[in-house]
Structures are given as C-alpha cells and as structure tokens.
Write a structure and sequence with these properties.
The longest helix has 23 residues. It is built from 15 helices and 13 strands. α8 links the parallel β8 and β9. α3 packs across α4 and α8 crosses α13. By secondary structure, it is an alpha/beta fold.
C-alpha cells in the first residue's frame, strides 16, 4: 500500500511532527508513505530525510501570504502529475489550503481513495461563505473525513453537512518512550538548568503564543496565587506573535521574575517533568496533544472544558476541568492539587493509565492501518 500525505510544508507544528512519527511506523506495517508539500519542504525536511521518509515538494519557495493564495492551478496540475506517476492507493490531506489542492489533484489523477484529515474546529470558514461552499463541495467527493476527536467530528459533520458514514474518529497518539516520568535527580538537575530551585512550584504551559491559547489566564492565576505560594513560578514553552504582549503583562502585574519564557523547544519531556501542574487554558482545542504529552510525563493537568478536552481528560478523571476564562476556577483547581498529595497521585495514576491505553502512537498506528485497509477494500469492492 502507498499513501501520500499532503501538507503545506514541513514546519514545526502538531500535524507535521505527528507525520514524522507515523510514517516510519507505517512502513513497518507494509505501508509505504510519502509526504507531499504544496508550498515548500520547510525546516523539518532534513529531519524527515534522516528518518527515511520520502518528501516531495511542488514549490521551492514559501509565499509570504499564509492564506488562500496557496490555492493555485499550477500547484493542482503539478500534484496531479505527481500522483499519476507514483499511483498512490490513498491520498490523505492535512490543513485547509493543502486539502483543497490535494483533493482536486487526487480526483484528476483518479486516486482510488481520498481522505481529508480534520485536526481542529475551523470556525473561520463560516465567515468566508465561498470557502465553506468549496469545502462542502470537496467533502462530498472525499471518501472519508478523518477527525482526531469526537468533538471535531461533530463540528465538522455539522459545518460541512455530511452524513455520518463519511466521518471517522481516530485519537492522536504519542511516543510513550519519549514522554515519560523522569527520575527525581534528572528533574532536579533540569530545573536547576532552567533557573528554578528544587523548592519552586512550577506551573507550566506549552503552546503557540496566540490569542485563543489564553496564556494571559495563566499569568493571572500566578498573580492570584502568588501571595499564598511564595515559591510559585510559571514556565511558558512556545513562541508566537503575542510573546511581547505577554512579557509586558508580567511586568504590569509585577511577576516578571516569576515567569520564564523559553520559546520553542525540542526534548519536551524534560520541560514537562519540570512542571508541577500543566495548564491548558485554550478557548478552543481540537485535541490537545501537548496536554497528553504532559499527562504521559506524570504531570497533573488543569484544563479548559472546551472542544475535545472533556473527551480526553474528563471521561477518565485524569485531570481537573474549568470553564474557559475563569481565573477563580483555575486558581481553585491548582490550589486543590498543590494542597492534596493524594489528589495529585490519583490524577497522575489515572492519566498514565489512560495515555497507555488510549493515546500510545503504536496503538494509533495499528488502528490507522486497519482503517486504511478497510477503506481500500470497501472502495475496491464497490468499483469491481
């Protein structure tokens, strides 16, 4: 079986990182894969090559505009030629502009199976009616829409007006060998490297610094609880356009010495292990991969009750949920974890068990392979 995954480019991001983990594992199950970039190879191209993943790029230069200018006839034609030459059994598209050109090209090339992957709730399409009509038109001509959570599936089904049989949900997975609780001495050494003492209590966030992630809420919680917990600190991993605003906010609240902004990082396991509580403050979340990684590292999670979060955390009781934007509720949840060793242990134990059973990437890879085979068998049976 040959599967082509179509993305805009290989930048650092949840979708691209997941593909770099999935493709080598699929190859062990007799599924050859190729990542096809519609814009440019991107900064993770070398990483993909070193992992033995084939990468093809339609263009060599990434345009400045991240919007719909990516959807160009020449890109569609180049993709169609590529698909005709390699004859993949499945074309699976990811992220909207790549999903448009990828699906059109796959139809032109008469690819047997076309899958679009929904990783989030793209509500912006509702404000661009022509875009929404185009997506509905293509979705009706797509064999399956694969979603990373039931929340995303329900949203997508309603937005695109699709029948239930078009939809499928497959939870994302993480490498539990990479994300795991570390020995105490390693955690102590790494916290020292970050400038924390062994007595500091570290709240943590890992996210792109954009408005809907609501990192401001984490800073507000630090301000509220700072008097009760003199050793309370905040570690923010990630970067983005709001970084300067967030740093100014810490100065305005006179907590800048308690907050560490460390930018984007590799080797996230050590950063998660340095946290005493992980805060997921986002106002929308298609899955929450960073949250699952933190759970796998034995860090108790306090998360907003939105999107897929209740599905991931609430069902198994492996975290504490709060209403979006409620600083009082977040602070109360953090207090309960810091003041109760028993509650922390219970939540951590449930989270570790849940990740192992539901969110291990080896489990996900096997389920994805079964999904591919079943879909190809049904499609080929209909076409005989």
């Amino acid at each position: 079986m040959l599967v082509h995954h179509v993305v805009p480019y290989l930048e650092t991001g949840g979708v691209q990182n997941l593909l770099l983990e999935l493709c080598p594992r699929l190859s062990k199950l007799d599924c050859e894969t190729q990542i096809v970039c519609t814009v440019s190879p991107g900064p993770l191209y070398r990483h993909a090559e070193l992992s033995g993943i084939q990468v093809f790029s339609v263009n060599d230069a990434r345009p400045k505009d991240r919007g719909l200018s990516w959807i160009q006839p020449k890109v569609v034609l180049r993709l169609a030629r590529h698909f005709r030459h390699h004859r993949p059994d499945i074309v699976q598209t990811h992220l909207f502009p790549a999903a448009v050109v990828g699906r059109i090209a796959a139809r032109i090339a008469k690819t047997p199976v076309i899958i679009d992957t929904m990783h989030s709730t793209y509500s912006w399409k509702d404000r661009k009616f022509g875009v929404l009509l185009l997506d509905r038109f293509l979705a009706a001509r797509t064999d399956k829409i694969l979603c990373n959570s039931k929340s995303v599936e329900l949203f997508t089904q309603m937005q695109l007006r699709l029948p239930a049989h078009k939809m499928e949900t497959l939870h994302l997975g993480i490498d539990t060998r990479k994300f795991r609780p570390l020995p105490r001495e390693e955690i102590h050494a790494f916290k020292g490297h970050l400038g924390f003492s062994d007595h500091d209590i570290v709240l943590g966030c890992a996210a792109r610094l954009v408005p809907h992630k609501r990192i401001m809420d984490a800073i507000s919680v630090l301000t509220v609880l700072g008097q009760k917990y003199s050793k309370l600190r905040l570690l923010v991993v990630g970067d983005g356009p709001m970084r300067n605003d967030l740093e100014q906010e810490t100065r305005r609240h006179a907590v800048s010495r308690r907050v560490s902004f460390v930018g984007e990082q590799q080797g996230m396991c050590s950063f998660y292990n340095a946290m005493d509580v992980f805060l997921q403050t986002s106002e929308r979340e298609g899955f929450g991969l960073a949250m699952v990684e933190a759970m796998a590292c034995g860090v108790p999670v306090v998360a907003a009750n939105v999107g897929a979060i209740p599905e991931i955390v609430g069902e198994a009781g492996c975290g504490i949920l709060f209403p979006v934007g409620s600083i009082e509720a977040i602070a109360g949840a953090v207090e309960s974890l810091l003041d109760s060793v028993e509650l922390r242990r219970t939540i951590i134990a449930k989270a570790l068990a849940s990740v192992s059973e539901r969110f291990d990437i080896e489990v996900m890879t096997k389920k994805l392979m079964t999904f591919y085979r079943d879909l190809c068998n049904r499609k080929m049976g209909r076409n005989r």
